[in-house]
Specification:
nine-stranded mixed sheet, alpha/beta, about 20% strand, 14 helices, about 40% helix, TIM Barrel, globular
Length: about 375
Amino acid sequence: MIYIHIPYCRQACHYCNFHFSTSLNTTDTMVKAIIKEIDTRKNYLDSNLLSSIYFGGGTPSILTKEQLGLIFNSITKHFKIDSNTEITFEANPEDITYDNLCFWNELGINRLSIGIQSFHQEDLTWMNRIHNVDQSIKALDLVDDFGKLDYSMDLIFGSESTSNKNWETNLQMTIDRKPSHISCYALTVEENTALHHHVKKGTKKESPQQKIKSQFYLARKFLQEAGYEHYEISNYSLPGKNAVHNSNYWASKSYLGIGPAAHSYNGISRSWNLSNNIHYIKAIAEHDNAQVSEQLTETDKYNEFIMTRLRTKWGINKKEILQNFNAKYNQYFNSEVQSLIQSKLIIENKDSFTLSESALIIADRVSSELFY
């Protein structure tokens, strides 16, 4: 699978800590650099048949047709895409037009990830989103009428402005659309973001954990009752509509990350590109190494296995942990997991260990208890 990072946004959302720039004057040279990186790293993956391609950002829908077409030509030149390849494109509501939908579909994009975040203007204003509620509704109407693209909707809960009532409305309006996939992300205050600065100044407040917990379980109840499967902490889908790309991450499949700040993983090592647009473009143009990499130790692999598997509804498969890790790690796991079972944070099933209902909201903390 391949992830393409498009590091541009028209406006900075206050909560975002992803790498991006609001200056668009380097988009042409960035596209050339991305194409060159694809050319030089085409042999990174064991197979050139792609199970998924994901355009993330930033805002991929900011690219022109010509720019996007050039990137697609480079991918199809070096990799095989078949009818089963999931090709996801992150799009903001303001960029969704009938003309764009036709072009994206012609390119082969078969799935959109639409950054709705909320159907309440006070939430969008608080987050500093560039789109408004009317644009969201018009964009979704267009996608529904177009009818040729699967789509996922992103929602954010737990902000100071989002009441439980507003969150219920967001969930109901989303369910009414019947998207195949829904991602619900808890708002977190990340360092070096505008939101972090506002919280430190006291101009915005960080929501109490009880509110975040309440809205997390409210989403779980609403969406499960509407027929959505809660297959990963932040992700829900209709039966058979799990995101292939996201699921591959949780299953520790190899992936190639292209573009500034993008990460790659091949089971042996992890690498990440420079998080600076100008430095990335320069390094690629001058044939310098644009990546920093690290070799993964057995302990690294074990800890990541625990963290990724526990985030999913399938949990930690007993046979898989036995086959992938030596006796030292298996003995440690079997010893440490007992106290978590006793405290009802983990459930032991016939073939696996999964998080209990109450532990879903503290998945990272529970996982860390099992780290070697």
